[in-house]
Amino acid sequence: MKHYIFLLLGVMLLGSSCSLLETEPMDTHTPDDFYSTQEEVEFALNGVYAVMANTQLYGGEMLARMGLTADIGYESYSSDYNTVGDYDTQPSDPKVQKYWRYFYEGINRANMLMERIDQAKLEKETRDNIYAQAQFLRGFYHFMLLIRFRNIPLMLHTAPDGNVESVQIAQADPRDAYLAVIADMEAAVEHLGTAESLEAPGRVSQSTAWGMLARVALNMAGYPLYEPGMYAKAKGYAQKVIDTQYHALHPSYEELFLCYIQDRYYPQESLFEVEFYGNNEGTYDTTAGRVGRDNGIANNSTNNRTVILPNGMTLMDTYGTSIGAIRATPYYYGLFESTDLRRDWTISPYEYSVDYATYPDYKKPAANNWMRYCGKFRRECEVLRPRSTNYTPINFPVLRYSDVLLMWAEAVVADVTNNSAEDLAQAREYINQVRRRGYGKDILTPDETVDLPSMSKSELFEELKDERARELGYELLRKDDIVRWGEFAQRMKYMKNLAATIPDTYTSSYYHNARRYYNNTETRDELWPIPTFEMGVNRKLVQNTGW
Question: Distance from CA of residue 284 to its chain's centroid?
Fold first, then answer.
């Protein structure tokens, strides 16, 4: 968004290396002649943030083409056959390699800024805040690597020189790596601004840090570490966000996502988002992303591209191009009740086609539950014109307040050591608040038509798992959730069996792709392999089990 359009440009001055572990410097400025003024330090910080918007990460590939939707969505895009997006992953997979590469590049940029910030003469409060943002992002980027690879090197400083031996770094014990992430985020939070004081959630606030700490702690509490005391930690971190009394659910689920689509902010619920701006045309030609273009309602057929409508435009010009890489599963569609307003926003009830002019606005109702697309980031709601074929200004949510409420609840219902009836009742209330908004009800007013009744802790845990899917679907959290719960293999096996019920006579491409996607899954896919290239450079790396 326009407040931070230069955020995505920060990378340009800093330069871009192909790998953190490559030894040939690629920067256009040396560390000794940069970081000398506040402007340069802030520009360097922009470069740390900019990593998230990379086309290989939140700016593109992660959105729909890396298998992160697991059992609630499958990739239906033939260009990604034999890749991680098709669950046919190999250690040489370019998408896996670039994910590793760019998050480590972000870590390296954060380290460089943290080590050299004192070269500039800054007011202490300014210095501490910039340092804290970089420190949080270093922890966050390590976390994003941990949940994909589990066994990773900790990079807490830049390499002392360009010698190959200086980058031979062994993988850390996962427990130690998680504790380092927590240490970074906890150290950062003291010097971060409040969410209320910031202009927009594209920058890290105290609420961002506390909410993300809750996510980190939940992952540490679950499979495979089962770290004692971490559920209580997660509850405490989430409570700090709640205690600000600033955050609240947007009254309308649909309107919240229109804020992401239409260049508006709602920081009361959106605690952290990756910002994009424009359509990569004109002055700002590197600031747009592919949210909605990759993970939207498909609109790229030949007829949609060429047939002129009565409005003088093609259907693609009218509604925006999307490759529609993600389709919903019947299992996911079935989790919603028909009166849950989130269903038809998250899962599109229609597709676009000039072949169906008899339907209002060329929107043909979806014929079955294997063909429905992700509808959460629909480009037809963009306000920017002209619409680009390949890029969008839509922001992507990384952390929302509804997630914080659900994490607080999970920290209670998953914790076998917590026997508090008061906590259990509060956990149910937080889940019900999320549900009420989903059904269009008043969030804080009990409503027996949608509220979950009193039930055991284990029963409420099962309800929470479904509620997270309904509330947070296609926000890149589903695979992490089912891995953390130790349920990845069994849930993907269930989906494999469900896909197997598709009759062989059903030959449409989406049926074929559903079968491929789930037939390819194995237990080892809960993790990605360590990239082959990185193992060739860093000889101390050990491949993950099964790869």
Answer: 24
Strands (E), 123-258: none
Residue pair 202/7 in contact by the 8 Å Cβ criterion: yes
Question: Smallest Cα–Cα separation from 395: which of 242, 145, 203?
Answer: 203
Angle at 475 between CA 470 and CA 479, to 5 degrees: 80
Q: pTM for this structure?
A: 0.94
- Quick check: is 224 in a domain? no
Read off φ and ψ for residue 25, nearest 5 degrees. Answer: -65, 140
Q: 340 — phi, psi (to 5°)?
A: -80, 115
**Residue type at 350?**
Y
Which of 377, 394, 411 is the C-terminal boundary of a domain?
A: 394
- 157, burial (CB in 10 Å: exposed 0-12, middle 13-18, buried 19+): exposed
Q: Which domain holds residue 147?
A: 7-192+529-537
Structural domain contains residue 330: yes
From start to end of 217-325, where are the E strands?
A: 270-274
Q: Maximum distance among all alpha carbons in the chain?
A: 71
459-507 per-position pLDDT tens digit: 999 999 999 999 999 999 999 999 999 999 999 999 999 999 999 999 9
Extract the tokens encoding 497. 């069996």
pLDDT digits (tens, 9 = 90+) for 274-291: 999 998 876 666 799 999
Q: Are residues 168 and 308 part of one domain?
A: no
Structure tokens that stand for 284 in this block: 């700002």
Does 535 score more than 80 pLDDT? yes
Element holding 240 (H helix, E strand): helix 230-243
Neighbour-count burial for 375-409, b at 16+ CB within 10 Å, e otherwise: bbbbbbbbebeebbeebbbbbbbbbbbbbbbbbbb
pLDDT attached to residue 417: 97
Q: Do residues 401 and 248 make contact, with C-beta atoms less than 8 angstroms apart?
A: yes
Give the count of domains, the chain. Answer: 2
The domain that contains 172 carries what CATH number?
A: 1.25.40.890
**Residue 406, token pair as written in the block:** 């659900």
The pLDDT-based confidence of 29 (bands split at 50, 70, 90) is low
Residue where a domain stops, chosen among 333, 359, 394: 394
Extract the tokens encoding 305. 């591209």
End-to-end CA distance of the chain: 41
What pLDDT, in 10s, does the model give residues 384-403? 988 899 999 999 999 999 99
Which tokens in the block code for residue 166?
Answer: 């200086």
Asked whether residue 82 is domain-assigned, the answer is yes
Report strand pairing: 363-365 vs 350-352.
antiparallel
